[in-house]
Amino acid sequence: MYNIKPIIRPGLVQQSLAIGFLLISFALPALPVSSVAGNDKLNLATKTVADNPFEYILENRADPFVPFLTEKAASTNFDMNEVIDRQEPLSGMQLFEPGQLTLVALMQTGNKDIAMVEDFTGKGYVLFEGTKIGRRGVVKDIATNSVLIEETAETRAGKKIITEIVMILKKEGEE
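Predicted structure:
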């Protein structure tokens, strides 16, 4: 046969009893000893309310039923046409805005168009249709001599602002 004994840490029972006693003592209302001994508990409750009526004094206090934010206060603090940016981590081509890049080559492989751009240090990158670029841009079209980037911004009011940026391939010697 197996000898199974419950594992009880020393002091755990005492701690549990003490915590239970504290919870019960805070949950019960404090009553005077004389009222507990007598049978007039109901009379004690009515006497306490009648003897100490509660009165709310509104003087120098805010009205508790007025909303914290009013329409006027909300509209004066924020410009509803302000463009807001989502706080998401940027990676890859999202680290570069279109104005920081120069279009250096356009290629076509089968039915897929490819654009090559370089940053101010001369490092090259490859763009495809659908590539995210900058905070709000997406490569929409790669044509024979240009790349169309569509930037979509959203205002506080939820209105979308769409801007198109065209990167043009310059021939050698052009600036």
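Summary: DSSP finds four helices and eight strands in the chain.
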